[in-house]
Fold these 2 entries.
Entry 1:
Amino acid sequence: GAISTASLSERVQQVSVTPPASLREVDSGKILGFGADLAEDHPGFRDGAYKRRRMDIATLARSHEVGEPIPELDYLPEEIATWGTVLRETSQLYPTHACQEFLHTFPLFDFREDRVPQLEAMSSILRQCTGWQIRPVAGLLHPRDFLNGLAFKTFHSTQYVRHHSRPMYTPEPDVCHELLGHVPMLADPRYCEMVHKIGLASLHADNKQIWHLTKIYWYTVEFGLIREHGEIRAFGAGVLSSYGELENMRSEKPQILGFDPFAVLPKMDYKSGYQKLYYILDSFDDAATKLGAYCDKLQQA
Ligand code: NLE
Ligand code: FE2
């Protein structure tokens, strides 16, 4: 998902808190990073053709209206090759590293190395499984808008492909991350229930609470782990879409803590490579119960 982090916190302060009444009222145009403007340390920064392509894809996303089908994109041979590499490599680790829910829903999407799946096709499978849908977005969306989308069972998704020079890890969301990390998980009803709670809580949250919910989102939906029969498995999309992150999660390097939505959560970090800290859930039901308690507290406050 396209969600901003850390240094953007000041900009969050300027947002009004009138909750949107429908998805149409969720602004998908406040892009805080990535999208078409690549930072100097981005692997595609010096690649003019890549930057022009990113610009075109961002324009396509901006043209989308709620209720219309997501425009199809003809992926270039180089983009298909990158997707194929990401799919082939991450798939080797899924049987041993991905959670059961992911392994169960993954085959529904018929992922193939020679074809980048279209968001519209993915969205229609999700609608049938869980009632969730995808909305295209040009880049990293403002956290409030992104989280508000979840309340309407809508996942804002990028459509561009990461730069071919680094298929195993990208600091930003791209379509490989969305398709391999988020889409299969969003076909699981119990997982969706947990994510929906984050979205609903965001509707009435003040800016400080939005910041905490963004961290909750980050440490679960993006980088969460789950305990299964005494083993550590990944359900976070940022782990599932990156071969390097999947390996990192199982190495001796990171710290792994039990997840508690009431606890103070550390600053999010995507700039310095693999995560140094992951949070682990006992189950999605348990997490949804705890999140429910946190959200009730928000509403009473
Ligand atoms: N590092 C992830 C990947 O390479 O797929 C993307 C994380 C986006 C938050
Ligand atoms: Fe994501």
Entry 2:
Amino acid sequence: MRLGIISALHEEQQGLVEAMQGPQRRSHGMRDYTLGTLWNIDAVCVLSRLGKVAAAMTASILVEKYGVTHIVFTGVAGSGDKRVKVGDIVVAEALLQHDMDARPLFPRFEVPLTGLQRFATDLELSTQLAGAAEDFLRDDVSSVLKAAHIVEFGLQHAQVHRGLIASGDQFISSAAHVNQLKEDIPDLLAVEMEGAAVAQVCFELGVPFTVMRTISDNANEEAAVDFMRFVQTVASPYALTVIQQLCQR
Ligand code: ADE
């Protein structure tokens, strides 16, 4: 097994790259790939940057050039459901591209010529990751995050959810917009900008993958401010500790 770990932003992956044993940096297509081991698992970490094309490019190179056999995307997302709160973790069961619309040629959300609106994640990998996230929230959250952050972000009540994540080339920052998406996609749990692109690439290349997102904001008018504060303070320890738990299982 060789695990590819993608995040969009430096802050989301910083801790993981620092934890790598025997790291070797390779540059390709304007991205830095760090090869090494994480808790005895052969791994490659890379930043995709934001958006679906950036994520698709990165996932393809991870598989085709660096030979990863499994991919985990870890990062933050906006909430797409009232029960999904800032600080909660969402592990995707399926991903959908909410800005895909080739009507009248194909139904809304269907990725042309795949016959699919939703790409399913790998059940085994998702179950392992959700278990690792549950362990983190139960046992480790207070030891890796300062008490101030726990209170500020309400992390003491954080939960793990599993279900649908939607991706699009839009940072959602209006209540009207996220409410409309929720109306159109009733089982939506979270919105972000990369996961469904990685999902399509992995589906087409036959690579098992999953996506884990920590909720940084409510995709409303305050989203940009909440997102920045969350990413700078708590996103990195979440990813580091959950992936550590996953690798040690
Ligand atoms: N990632 C984190 N928050 C987001 C939002 N509100 N919209 C899109 N992607 C996000």
